[in-house]
């Protein structure tokens, strides 16, 4: 396994804080990833220095979360969040602390963190500080709360969704006491903003185990967004066959939600989670196509492309093949590669051409639609003179 070491700019920040008499450690996800042999996406630092002391040491820094002790240090074109050791108290909204106080003790800071695997600190000298057994839990592939799980979820209900997401992403199991507390406190998810729930769900469905979203549903964490929970036996491993594209996987999930009558419609489910209108529309249309039965016939595929557009039909074809079975994706790719016409803009004639042969008003649009349907069946005849002859003949008759 490759040994992951912090980049030079991160080491420089740590050593600079040390040289000014402050404690400084890498903390959180980056330490967890180092232990797992993964290259971290972000490098977070915690320190005994107060925010104003950090800014004095690094004049180019900016206060990005002073209430929580966070300063963003800019160094060598990189940005690193540096946060003062802190303690938190009171969570009236089950999401944010009512009070934050800065402390000098690293263990106190680690104690406020969600899971043991995220409550490990790494000193500039390579010493691991692990007061809650996070290294052992990583080795045993366990997601375990720091402290009493029910209390931690009372403080911040989003931690329940994060636990499920981490388990899916890392291939871990959730420690039984932690899982029991999730089921006990799942009702607190109603206090979370739909956008935050959507963010965690999207991260989950983009993991290698997207079907874990049904564990989230089974635990009761989405009761505010569905009519009923699908059978606890539902696993839907086929979701993992879908490409790691957010819109495609949302479509697959929405199809299963509607198929198992967990919501009135795919669109209502996605809208309730505040997905953007385009994704909701495309995914909803794709689910409708799937439920009506998507054909692998080339002409039928071109009609779908005509009526719904390439994105929606792609979502439908991908999800149909993975969740229902078939070879729709192969047909779709063949149609798109062929360059054959499936939209009015690709016809060999235009509205002006039809006006030139005597058509007027609504008849122009009707003829374009007629010609498009003809060309979908006879792609080799998408030629200007052939289509104009058809238009003239139809008009004369």
Give a written overview of the molecule.
The chain has 397 residues and is an alpha+beta fold. The protein contains 19 helices and eleven strands. The longest helix is centred in the last third of the chain and has 16 residues, at 277-292. The protein is elongated, with a radius of gyration of 28 Å.
What's a concise summary of this model?
With 397 residues, the chain is α+β, with helices and mostly antiparallel strands.
What does the radius of gyration come to?
Answer: 28 Å
Largest sheet: 7 strands, mixed
How far do the termini sit from each other? 77 Å
The strand count comes to 11
The helix-strand sequence is HEHEHEEEEEHEEHEHHEHHHHHHHHHHHH
Q: Roughly what is the average pLDDT, rounded to an integer? A: 94
* Number of separate helices: 19
Query: Into which percent range does the helicity of residues fall?
Result: 40-55%
Overall shape: elongated
What's the arrangement of strands in the largest beta sheet?
3-4-5-2-1-8-9
Q: How much of the sequence is in beta strands?
A: 5-15%
Structural class: alpha+beta
**Which segments are poorly predicted (pLDDT under 50) over 5 or more consecutive residues?**
none
Which secondary structure elements does this structure contain, and how are they paired or packed?
Blueprint: H1 8-19, E1 24-27, H2 29-36, E2 45-47, H3 51-57, E3 62-65, E4 70-75, E5 78-84, E6 86-89, E7 99-102, H4 106-111, E8 121-122, E9 128-129, H5 134-139, E10 142-143, H6 149-155, H7 158-170, E11 173-174, H8 176-185, H9 194-205, H10 213-218, H11 246-259, H12 266-272, H13 277-292, H14 298-308, H15 310-323, H16 328-338, H17 351-356, H18 362-377, H19 384-396
Parallel strand pairs: 2-5, 10-11
Antiparallel strand pairs: 1-2, 1-8, 3-4, 4-5, 6-7, 8-9
Helix pairs in contact: 6-8, 7-9, 11-12, 11-13, 11-15, 12-13, 13-15, 14-15
């Amino acid at each position: 396994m490759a040994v992951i070491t912090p980049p030079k700019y991160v080491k420089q920040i740590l050593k600079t804080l040390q040289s000014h008499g402050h404690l400084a450690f890498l903390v959180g996800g980056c330490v967890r990833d180092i232990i797992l042999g993964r290259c971290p996406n972000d490098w977070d630092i915690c320190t005994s220095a107060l925010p104003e002391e950090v800014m004095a040491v690094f004049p180019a820094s900016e206060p990005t979360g002073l209430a929580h002790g966070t300063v963003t240090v800019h160094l060598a074109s990189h940005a690193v969040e540096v946060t003062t050791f802190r303690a938190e108290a009171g969570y009236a909204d089950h999401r944010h602390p009512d009070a934050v106080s800065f402390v000098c003790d690293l263990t106190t800071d680690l104690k406020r963190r969600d899971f043991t695997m995220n409550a490990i600190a790494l000193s500039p000298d390579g010493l691991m500080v692990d007061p809650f057994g996070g290294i052992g839990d990583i080795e045993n592939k366990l997601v375990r709360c720091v402290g009493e799980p029910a209390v931690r979820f009372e403080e911040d209900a989003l931690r329940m969704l994060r636990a499920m997401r981490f388990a899916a992403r890392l291939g871990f199991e959730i420690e039984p006491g932690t899982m029991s507390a999730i089921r006990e406190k799942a009702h607190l998810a109603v206090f979370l903003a739909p956008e935050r729930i959507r963010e965690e769900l999207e991260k989950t469905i983009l993991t290698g185990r997207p079907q874990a979203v049904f564990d989230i549903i089974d635990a009761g964490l989405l009761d505010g967004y569905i009519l009923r929970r699908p059978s606890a036996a539902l696993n839907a491993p086929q979701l993992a066959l879908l490409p790691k594209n957010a819109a495609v996987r949302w479509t697959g999930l929405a199809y299963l939600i509607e198929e198992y009558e967990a919501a009135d419609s795919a669109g209502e489910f996605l809208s309730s989670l505040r997905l953007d209108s385009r994704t909701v529309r495309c995914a909803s249309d794709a689910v409708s196509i799937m439920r009506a039965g998507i054909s692998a016939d080339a002409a039928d595929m071109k009609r779908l492309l005509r009526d719904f557009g390439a994105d929606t039909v792609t979502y439908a074809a991908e999800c149909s093949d993975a969740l229902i079975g078939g070879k729709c994706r192969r047909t779709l790719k063949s149609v798109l590669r062929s360059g054959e016409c499936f939209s009015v803009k690709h016809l060999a004639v235009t509205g002006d051409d039809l006006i030139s042969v005597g058509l007027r008003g609504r008849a122009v649009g009707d003829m374009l639609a007629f010609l498009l349907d003809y060309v979908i069946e006879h792609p080799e005849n998408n030629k200007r003179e052939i289509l104009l002859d058809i238009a003239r003949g139809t008009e004369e008759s």
